[in-house]
Amino acid sequence: MQRELNPARPAAASAPGTELWRGSWVIFTKHMHKFLRNGQEVGGTLAAPLLLAATFGLGMERLVDPGLIGGLNYLSFITPGIIAFTALSGAINAGMTILEEKIKGMLKEYMVAPIPRLSILFAATGSGLVKTLVQSLLILLVAMLFGARVQTSPGGVVAAIVILGAFVVASVGFANGMALRSKSIGGYHTILFLMNLPLLFLSSALYPLGTMPAWMRVVALLNQTTYAAEGMRGALFGAAELNLWLCLAVLAGFAVLCTWFGLRSFRRLV
After folding, report:
1. N or C: fewer beta carbons within 10 Å in the chain?
2. For residue 257, what pLDDT band results from cuts at 50, 70 and 90?
C-alpha cells in the first residue's frame, strides 16, 4: 500500500513517452490474443481475399488484354488491389473492436487506468497494421503460387510496406473515428460496409485507370484505395499508372487526416 501512495518513484522511473508505449503494448497484445483465439475471424479474414483472387484473377484472366494492364497477367494486376481490400476489411474489424469495447464499458476501464488515453488508439492501429501485413504476405505468396509474377527489389519491397502501412493507418484511423461516433454495432456495420465496396470498385484495384469512363476516373483519383493499389503495383510488379512518390504523398496526407479524425472522435467521447 505504501508503494501505491508514493508518487515519486514511478515518476522518476518513467521516461517521457514510456507509459504511452507501455499502455499501447498491453492493449495491443490483448487485441492480438483475442484475434488469434478466434479461428472464425482468422479464417474468414484470409478466405475472403483469397476467394476474390481466385474469382477475378483466375476466372477473368483470358478476358483482360495484358496490353491494357502494363503487360501483367491479370492475377498480378489485381494482387495489390486484393491486398488493399484486405486492409480495408482489417480496418473495419479494428474499429469493430473499439466499438465493442465502448459498448461493454471497457473503454472507461482503460481511461481510469494509469496509462495515456492515446494508448487505446495506438494499440488499435498497431494491431490492425500487424494483422494486415501478415495477411498481405500470405496473399502475395498464394498469388505467386497461382502465377503472379513479382518484379521488384529490396527497395521495392520496403516501398510497398511503407505504402501499405500508410494506407492501413489512414483506414484504421477513419474506422476508429466512425466506431467512436457510432451508437450501435448495426449502425457501424451499415455505414462502413456501404463504404467498403465502393472504395474497392471505384478505384484501380480491379481494373486500370485508363479503361475507366471519365467520371469514374475522377472518382478513382479521389479515392485513397487507388493510390494504395497503384503504389504497391509499381513497387512489386513494376507497372503502375501513377507515380510512386505521388502515391506515397497522397497516402501520407490521408493518414494524417484520418488519424486526426480518429483523435478528434476520441476526444469528443471523453
Report:
1. N
2. very high
